[in-house]
Amino acid sequence: MLEGVAHAVRRSSQHLSLTSASLGISGAGAATITARQYPRICSETSETVVMTAPIKIGIIGGSGLYKMDALKDVREVEIDTPFGKPSDALILGNLDGTPVAFLARHGRHHTLMPSEIPFRANIYAMKSLGVEYLISASAVGSLQAEAKPLDMVIPDQFIDRTRNRISTFFGEGIVAHIAFGDPVCSNLATLLGEAIASLNFPDITLHRGGTYVCMEGPAFSTKAESNLYRSWGAMVIGMTNLPEAKLAREAEIAYATLALVTDYDCWHPDHDSVTVEMVIGNLQKNAVNAQQVIRETVRRLSENPPPSEAHSALKYAIITPLDQAPAATKEKLSLLLQKYW
Questions:
Q1: What domains sit in the chain, N to C, each tagged with a CATH number?
Q2: Quick one: pLDDT at residue 287?
């Protein structure tokens, strides 16, 4: 598994910075786009930014996937959130006519280690654009012989082995406990699997279901750890998706992972013979394949967006009576909480 290969990606010539001032919004929870309104796609009129329609589909690209080549009408948007800046500017555009938002998880030049990724800002920024469905493409190592390099896995479970990640928006006077027994949206995962199957990739196996171990990093596993995870029945290992999945659930966004196998983890007897060139080659091939999958998934989502339990995840999760919650925290989380006022 290789989580640290950077590829420089050309910046778009159109670059917007959304601030509370530019939109006439004030308050701690304003992010840059809005605090009390669901924001809209950005269009430029002289010195102002006008929000016109929601972007319902978000894409987060992991190692090797730093752009979507098929995006048209590309526009970059910098968003400030109550949790800081996201990993990079969000790339807005149309994918075969469907508005989408793309974000490079590690930054477009891969400058962020897994522990440095601003997960809360990333998910909050997606929510602020109106995103309801989030597709996460991620490089992973395989823990099982049947999941070979270049295969695709759609995990349905996670094991948390991180130590230094903040994976909740709540606290500071507001307590919420989301249900997380099924950490990905099953309907979105099914749709993603159908999209992959329809593409008939040669020599690539689709694995529907499986457990993703999310480790802290940046170092890879020891052999003892790798074999321990195998004994648990886990299928793949990565460093990023669990905090995203938890935060997406709190933000009431349907979430699914497209896990792209680069190589076997260190348990495999042939692991030491894997070269950097081989892994980089697999990353590049995976990135090309992932873009085809995402394009087909977006097409299907736009035609028939499925219902998701994630879209009402906070309905019974908020323990603190909101009329007793600190005003500053309510303002900070207003984008998430406003439907429950």
A1: 15-340 (3.40.50.1580)
A2: 94
CB 266 within 8 A of CB 226: yes
160 is catalytic: no
Query: Residue 236 and residue 221: Cα distance in Å, rounded?
Result: 12
Q: Which distant-in-sequence residues (6+ apart) come within 8 Å of 240 by Cβ?
A: 3, 62, 105, 114, 117, 138, 214
Residue type, 17: S
**Pairing state between β 72-79 and 90-95:** antiparallel
Enter the pTM of the model. 0.86
The active-site residue, picked from 156, 265, 270, 323, is 265
| 156 part of the active site | no
Amino acid letter for position 315: K
Q: Which of 303, 241, 316, 323 is nearest to 97 (CA)?
A: 303
Q: Is 321 exposed, middle or buried (0-12, 13-18, 19+ CB in 10 A)?
A: exposed
What are 261's two structure tokens? 């196998």
* 232-281 residue pLDDT tens: 999 999 999 999 999 999 999 999 999 999 999 999 998 876 777 888 89
Give every CB contact of residue 92 below 8 A, 6+ residues apart in sequence: 41, 42, 55, 74, 75, 76, 77, 99, 100, 101, 102, 129
Annotated catalytic residue, options 96, 263, 270, 272: 263
pLDDT tens per residue, range 197-236: 999 999 999 999 999 999 999 999 999 999 999 999 999 9
What 8-state DSSP symbol labels residue 37? S
- The b/e string for 6-42 (b: 16+ C-beta within 10 A; e otherwise) is ebebeebeeebebbbeebebeeebbbbbbbeeebbbb
